[in-house]
Design goal:
Structural class of chain B: alpha/beta
Number of helices of chain B: 15
Radius of gyration of chain B: 21 Å
Largest interface: A-B, 16 and 16 residues
Strand content of chain B: 5-15%
Strand order of the largest sheet of chain A: 3-4-5-8-6-7
Strand content of chain A: 5-15%
Distance between the termini of chain A: 53 Å
Largest sheet of chain B: 5 strands, parallel
Radius of gyration of chain A: 34 Å
Distance between the termini of chain B: 24 Å
Oligomer: heterodimer
Helix content of chain B: 40-55%
Mean pLDDT of chain A: 81
Strand order of the largest sheet of chain B: 2-7-8-1-9
Mean pLDDT of chain B: 75
Number of strands of chain A: 8
Number of helices of chain A: 14
């Protein structure tokens, strides 16, 4: 029974190779061939069947792991993308040279209208860099020796970055010592413009280095950079540090301030709308008044018999300390009593923005008076009794 | 507000400035209980069967805020000509604005003036949730309500002790085979009869009403008919007979007699009525106008009348109410003393007395 034994031995050796990290297409082909050979063999069927199932199962698992995109593949994709972009520009009748990514998005949305709710499921056409995840090229040469000197640390890019940063720090300190020795050291405190920018977060750093980091690694790195900032450094060091800072969006998102309108008697008033769940409200706030509020023509005390709703209406005025100073007329429809109260509150707060200073508008925004509540009723799922509630679990 | 009172009403009433009568939302029953004793210095709290939420017990005094509508009414009352048929005044207004308490104020005033008071604390109680409905002994088609009638008779007795011995019955009334009231016997006997023989209570009430109506014209006393929630008399009922058929208000003997009382075909007194949406049946919450609450029938029956609107507090009244609460340490919240706190309360209650009271109960 030599033949089956040989085959069995061959299968074992192939299984050993499966443990290797690098899965080349070549090897896959070899496996396929091996599987075919095993299937063809006669006699001792049971043994052979076991081998085939074992090998095929393992091959599938290997294939499901991260697909490596070769550099050539990515290059090809980029070329195809550019050509496709020009074609698209031609189709839309625009100039191919000045066709930006926003134009591409608009064109795709126009040509392939999709009714899907999930934005990420809709058709997109973006640069391959953004679609294919960044992968590391093979880190060692043909002889098996790694290119980078820190390869065997496991996190070569991270440690090389730390090394670089520390090197810069040492340079700066050396320069300072030299200046001090010469006596030309002057205490110049440069106020660096740290406001308006933030450090990279861990995920962003990982993405930049294409390496997994731990929290401690990240903290260490940020500490080193901050230390670099405390000492005086030249322009190139500044530039090095700025690479790791991202600008933060302007703090006060510009709230749209409604212009004031003037009615017949010369009284200033301002209108705006608000929404909450399925209630829509429109409020007209008059500048001078005595604190009367009319909802759909009915006094607010009668329209909202519950104190909680009236407290909601009180909130914007109470916050700005203008309780008895404005008159309000509003119309509201839809929703229930609580959501109508919330909608009116939002509308009133927005309308009040036009009577109030910028600073107070910022305070209102921070208090949450100017943000529409995004909470909506969650859908009921099949197999459950409600949106979250499951059916009663019976043990048997 | 108090100083204003004393200036407008100099000597006549001797209402001590410190006394403000203020009651909780279960006003009608309890109020009937304390105003039973019209004498000023007495402390009705001992007698009253007040509910626990009643500020009367907590404050150990009964206080009433004097407000414009009540003053207006009192002014009219003082200038009435008793030779003319009785004038009807109807207090109406939004929910919680103080109609019932204004009525109580008027009753108090008249009690001080020694009028005979016919006070129905809440007519709505007569048209809903009655347990024992019996066919009337007097008139087969009508229905009796022994329980309510006896309660009312007891109240009436305590209210008008003095008059019960004075007024004499004009006819002979036979209650059943064994009992009857002779002509010329005091009214007190009729009342006693009604209280002891609960079965005849409704008829006793009817008798009392008829006698008083007849005799007030003679001028021996002044009669004040005060009914709270008068729209109940012309609305629908929730009472059913044994065969589950609905009872119309006319078929209730009490209601029938009271309707006759409220008609202005007698003189020598006045009729003060209050509309109330709170206990009314089948009426929308926002209805407060006489037209809406009384319905066509009621409106025609009560026409002509003098309507008096009771509205929310004016800023001064609001201030004085808050001051009263603060003096009695009712408001425990730190912010209640401050201006902002008062503004908040004003906004939340919109100067509605009922709402304000409910809010302050939490503080």
């Amino acid at each position: 029974m030599a033949a089956p034994c040989v085959f069995w031995g061959a299968a074992v050796s192939y299984r050993l190779f499966l443990g290797g990290r690098v899965s080349l297409a070549l090897r896959q082909g070899v496996w396929k061939a091996a599987a075919a050979e095993l299937q063809v063999g006669t006699g001792e069927k049971i043994l052979r069947l076991r081998h085939t199932t074992g090998v095929t199962a393992k091959k599938n698992v290997a294939a499901l792991r991260r697909e490596t995109y070769t550099v050539d593949f990515i290059k090809k994709q980029i070329e195809e993308f550019n050509i496709g972009k020009r074609h698209l520009a031609n189709m839309m009748g625009e100039d191919p040279e000045t066709f930006t990514q926003e134009d591409i998005d608009r064109a795709i949305a126009y040509l392939f209208p999709s009714g899907l709710f999930e934005k990420q499921a809709r058709p997109i056409m973006k640069h391959p860099e953004q679609i294919f995840p960044k992968q590391r090229a093979i880190q060692w040469g043909e002889d098996g020796r790694p290119f980078h000197f820190l390869f065997y640390t496991g996190k070569q890019s991270y440690y090389s970055l730390m090394h670089e940063a520390y090197g810069k720090l040492l340079d700066v300190e050396k320069r300072q010592n030299q200046l001090q020795a010469k006596g030309l050291f002057s205490e110049k405190t440069k106020t660096k413009d740290l406001i308006g920018s933030r450090w990279l977060i861990k995920e962003e750093l990982e993405e930049m280095l294409v390496e997994k980091l731990s929290d401690q690694d990240y903290a260490q790195f940020i500490r080193l950079l901050e230390r670099l900032l405390t000492v005086e450094c030249s322009a190139e060091e500044e530039e090095f540090v700025q690479r790791f800072r991202r600008s933060v969006t302007v703090q006060s998102r510009k709230q749209l301030i409604e212009p004031l309108q003037y009615d017949g008697q010369g009284m200033a008033f301002s209108t705006s709308e608000g929404k909450r769940k399925s209630a829509k409200a429109e409020a007209i706030v008059y500048e001078h008044g005595s604190g009367r509020i009319k909802v759909n023509g009915i006094d607010y005390l009668l329209y909202f018999p519950v104190t909680q709703d009236r407290e909601q209406l009180m909130f914007p005025f109470h916050f700005l300390d203008r309780l008895g100073k404005h008159d309000v007329t509003c119309t509201v429809s839809g929703g229930g009593r609580s959501s109508q109260a919330g909608a009116i509150r939002l509308a009133m707060a927005k309308a009040l923005c036009s009577f109030v200073t910028e600073e107070e508008v910022e305070w209102m925004r921070q208090a949450g008076l100017l943000t529409a509540d995004p909470r909506v009723r969650e859908r009921k799922k099949p197999g459950q009794e409600g949106a979250r509630r499951k059916f009663t679990w019976k043990k048997r | 507000m108090l100083t204003r009172t004393s200036r407008l009403v100099p000597g006549a009433r001797r209402l001590d400035p410190g006394r403000l009568l203020h009651t909780g939302s279960q006003a009608p029953q309890s109020l009937a209980a304390h105003l039973d004793n019209p004498a000023p210095d007495d402390s009705p709290r001992a007698v009253s069967r007040t509910s626990e939420k009643d500020p009367v017990k907590t404050f150990s005094e009964a206080c009433l805020m004097v407000r414009k509508p009540a003053l207006e009414l009192l002014h009219y009352l003082k200038n009435t000509n008793f030779a003319h048929p009785a004038v009807r005044y109807v207090l109406y207004g939004e929910k919680g604005t103080g109609k019932t308490l204004s009525l109580c104020h008027v009753i108090h005033f008249c009690a001080k003036q020694d009028w005979l008071i016919l006070h129905v604390p809440d007519a709505h109680l007569w048209v809903k949730s009655c347990r024992g409905l019996l066919p009337s002994t007097y008139n087969k088609q009508r229905l009796d309500q022994p329980a309510e009638a006896s309660i009312w008779l007891k109240n009436f007795k305590t209210t008008n002790e003095r008059f019960l011995s004075q007024i004499k019955v004009q006819e002979k009334y036979v209650w059943n085979k064994r009992e009857s009231t002779e002509k010329g016997s005091p009214l007190g006997e009729v009342v006693e009869q009604g209280i002891t023989r609960v079965k005849n209570a409704t008829d006793a009430v009817g008798v009392v009403l008829r006698e008083l109506k007849g005799q007030s014209s003679l001028g021996g006393f002044r009669l004040l008919v005060a009914v709270d929630g008068v729209n109940a008399l012309w609305g629908k009922t929730t009472l059913k007979r044994e065969d589950k058929s609905l009872v119309a208000p006319e078929e209730l003997a009490l209601v029938h007699n009271l309707r006759k009382m409220v008609k202005n075909d007698w003189h020598g007194g006045t009729i003060v009525l209050t509309l109330s949406q709170t206990g009314s049946l089948f009426k929308p919450r926002k209805a407060y106008l006489p037209q809406e609450l009384l319905g066509k029938e009621g409106f025609d029956a009560l026409d002509p009348f003098i309507p008096i609107l009771v509205s929310n507090y004016s800023p001064k009244e609001f201030e004085s109410c808050i001051q009263y609460y603060l003096e009695n340490s009712w408001l425990q919240h730190e912010k209640a003393h401050t201006e902002e706190g008062k503004k908040e309360l004003l906004f939340l209650s919109n100067a509605n007395p009922g709402q304000l009271e409910r809010l302050c109960a939490h503080l």
